Amino acid sequence: MTITEFKTACSAIEQEYKAKIAAAADLAAVEELRVAALGRKGALTDLLKGLKDFSMEDKKVAGPLGNALKGALSAALEEKTAFFAAKQINDELNKTCLDLTLPAFPAPQGHRHPLSVAMDRMTTILAHLGFEWAEGPWVEDEKHNFDMLNIPKHHPARDAQDTFFADTGSPISMVLRTHTSNVQSRFMEKHRPPLRIMAPGRVFRNDSLDATHSPVFHQIEGLYVDKNVSMADLKQDLTAFMKGLFGNKAEIRFRPSFFPFTEPSAEVDVKCVFCQGKGCPVCKGSGWIEMLGSGVVHPNVLKNCGIDPNEYSGYAFGMGVERLAMMMMNINDIRTFYENDVRVLSQF
Fold first, then answer.
1. Nearest-angstrom CA–CA distance, 133 and 289
2. Alpha-carbon span 108 to 129, nearest angstrom
3. Under a CB-based contact definition with an 8 Å cutoff, are residues 324 and 218 in contact?
4. Is the peptide bond prior to 281 cis by the omega test (within 30 degrees of 0)?
5. What are the pLDDT digits (tens) for 179-229?
6. DSSP letters of 35-49?
7. Res. 343 pLDDT band, cuts 50 70 90
8. Could you write out the DSSP letters of every residue in 97-145?
9. pLDDT computed for residue 248 by the predictor
10. Helix axis angle, 231-246 relative to 321-329, nearest 10°?
11. Rounded CA gap, 240 and 253, in Å?
12. Strand, helix or coil at 92?
């Protein structure tokens, strides 16, 4: 073989295999062409065997030509291999529901909702005071929502203007629970004293939405039943709870009130953090914000739940989570909790 014939052979092999590589249908075909072109018995190896018969001057010309041919074929093979590898990845991605428009890792950190933060803080303090978690249904019968709690048939709370009645198709009148006190009545039915429970959850009232009211909100109710439980125990525990939320400098007051399920009853107020007691729209100019209702459990309630009021007594309280959260976080409009504005949520 002359050097001219070697050059012609190099050109022919390059054209032949580049055409075959371009027409390859898959990775297996590319690999077969790699072996046929560059393998130990391939076309390039067979061509280079003829170099031993060349003169030193011809070898200096043929050697670089052989290396250039090898480089050209290797580049074509690698390009085709990369093409099929990318195609395989795209085919796999097309089989999945992966959204490539989503932000790359690490994903932005989310934020806990302020109501979740407030609820956790309140229940943690109550747990430290010895209260255990209890839950009940959202859709409740009137017996557990009203009757067992000593709320008479003529009480305004049982009117449609205050309560959402649920049409369940049952002959039993059902309501969306107006408080989590239904958990108390159900718990006392099934358990004997001593009892010390907290009942967090969502409740429903037929209220108009404004800065301090919502038709859907959250409550935490507490119940303690044992021998010789008195108003002094209630005041001590609620004072500890409020100071746990707002700090030892928080100003708290108890006002006599009336609730059908407690006697005597008291409302607990905290000095308004927005105006420091001077009066503002949030506290309606009084300087105080009502936080919760409380009192000694009415003997009729204990009796309705099968507990002897001559042997046991207890206290109960109920608080709105949103209202406490507003005080804790300096939020002056309850609607803020439901608008899900990221600028607000990111602060918590």
1. 27
2. 37
3. no
4. no
5. 999 999 999 999 999 999 999 999 999 888 877 778 899 999 999 999 999
6. HHHHSTTSHHHHHHG
7. confident
8. ---TTSPPSSPPP----HHHHHHHHHHHHHHHTT-EE----SEEEHHHH
9. 86
10. 40
11. 13
12. helix
Q: In this predicted model, what pLDDT tens digit does every residue of 64-77 receive, in sequence order?
A: 888 888 888 889 88
Which residue's entry shows tokens 């010895």?
A: 130
Tokens of 236: 């001590």
What tokens appear for 39 in the block? Answer: 């393998």
Per DSSP, the chain holds a count of helices (H) and strands (E) of 12, 10
Which amino acid is present at 3? Answer: I
Backbone torsion region of residue 319, taken as left when φ is above 0, otherwise alpha when ψ lies between -120 and 50, otherwise beta: beta
Q: Which two tokens stand for residue 100?
A: 């490539």
Q: Name which residue leads in pLDDT, 82 or 330.
A: 82
For tokens 């070898």, name the residue: 59
253, exposed or middle or buried, with CB in 10 Å at 0-12, 13-18, 19+? exposed
Q: Which domains does the chain have, with CATH numbers?
A: 3-94 (no CATH), 114-345 (3.30.930.10)
